[in-house]
Amino acid sequence: MDSISQIVLGAAVGNAVAGKQLKNRALLYGAIAGCIPDLDVLALGFTDHLSAVEFHRTITHSVLFAAVASFLLGYVVYRIERKNALSYSKAYWLMFLGLLTHSLLDVFTTWGTQLFWPLPYSFALKSIFVIDPLYTIVFLYFLIRSALCKDNWPKRRYYNTLGIVISSAYLLLALGLKAVVYYKFKDQLQQNELQWQKITVKPSAMNIILWNAIIESETGFYVSDYSFLDKSKPIFTFYKKNHNLASSIENHPDFKRLVALSEADYIIEQKKDTLYFHDLRFGLLKNDIQDPKFGFSYAIVASKQGDLQITEVAKDNRDGVKMLKKLWARIKGR
Fold first, then answer.
1. Does pLDDT of 302 surpass 90?
2. What is the pLDDT of residues 267-284, one digit of tens each?
3. How many Cα neighbours within 13 Å face the side chain of 274?
4. Residue 223: strand pairing partners
5. Angle between helices 88-107 and 24-35 (to 10 degrees)
6. pLDDT tens digits for 127-159?
7. Nearest by Cα to 200 from 250, 153, 248, 264
8. Burial 195-206 (b: 16+ CB within 10 A, else e)
9. pTM of the model
10. Please, what is the end-to-end C-alpha distance for the chain in angstroms?
11. Residue among 202, 229, 225, 232 at smallest CA distance from 332
């Protein structure tokens, strides 16, 4: 999730663990813990883009990291706050839960999270977008109400708990809506007599009303969307895999890394001497069969020596603005 959501969640966890003793300082420590796992993005400054993407949501998002790092982080908080009778045990749990809940929240998004690193398994429920204003704003409201209570611990705890419960219920609601949409797409595929191998359903940007689907077939992917305000049935747009275009480099280690990152949900496009690898997991910025633009794309140029130069395709901010305008219109139903 985005940094603001993680700060709010971390602060609420800190408040729940040590708010009675530390008051609003508990929010500060929790917020810090909620930010720490995403420091793995600093890897961009020390390695190539592909390696940095692979590193994201691995070590620092694991249960192991939370358990080990909290020994040191908890000790720092304990040393600072022991004058307020904060025990080392409570300081440890404050930081551990702040770190762990960050990773658990990320599991609900599309990008895989390796909770049990070093085991190479990622978890992604794909039920909430990385930025969801409704989740964050409501949660933040109750956190602020709790912080304003200051010394009134029962009232402070009440608002803090209410924020945690409502935000958690929102996550569960998103999972339920995803299940409904999954069967909506599945039924429509059967009615259209389309052959498919796998369906991936995820929410569109910043809401849980409009959902996207990526349906894999033998030769390509059907892409569709569905709003709970729709009065018509889902419409499917087909994109060929074109994986044969990458046959000369399909065994190259760097290309295999891209395939692994995309969870094999990708298509290939060729323009002159450049291959374009389009990762379908994050949807389209522009859903145009003649000129589609995907959320994540990579340009691949092979040298005569067999090396690959892989560069992420830069996004045009104007495409993002257009997408948001179309998104709002599409949410209201077709």
1. no
2. 999 988 899 999 988 877
3. 13
4. 214, 237
5. 50
6. 999 999 999 999 999 999 999 998 899 999 999
7. 264
8. ebeebbbbbbbb
9. 0.92
10. 29
11. 229
Confidence of residue 323 (pLDDT cuts 50, 70, 90): confident
Residue 187: how many CB atoms within 10 A of its CB? 12
Q: Which distant-in-sequence residues (6+ apart) come within 8 Å of 325 by Cβ?
A: none
Q: Give CA–CA dist 116/67, Å, rounded.
A: 12
Q: What is the mean pLDDT of residues 175-183?
A: 97
Pull the structure tokens for residue 133.
């204003």
Structure tokens at 262: 């995309």
What are the φ and ψ backbone dihedral angles of 96, each rounded to 5 degrees? -60, -50
pLDDT tens-place string over residues 226-239: 999 999 999 999 99
Q: Is 135 helix (H, G, I), strand (E, B) or coil?
A: helix
Q: Quick one: which of 278, 268, 263 has its CA closest to 240?
A: 268
Q: Tell me the β-bridge partners of 219.
A: none
Distance of CA 164 to the CA centre of its chain: 19
Q: Under a CB-based contact definition with an 8 Å cutoff, are residues 109 and 178 in contact?
A: no
3-state secondary structure of 89: helix
Residue 273 has what pLDDT? Answer: 83
The total number of residues written for the chain in this structure: 334
Bridge partners, residue 267, by sequence: 278
Tokens of 245: 């275009």
What is the residue type of 199?
I
Residue for token pair 């990291």? 65
Share the mean pLDDT of the chain: 92
Q: Is the peptide bond before 118 cis (omega within 30 degrees of 0)?
A: yes
Angle in degrees, 0-180, between the axes of helices 63-81 and 88-107, rounded to the nearest 10:
140
Residue 287 has a pLDDT of 64
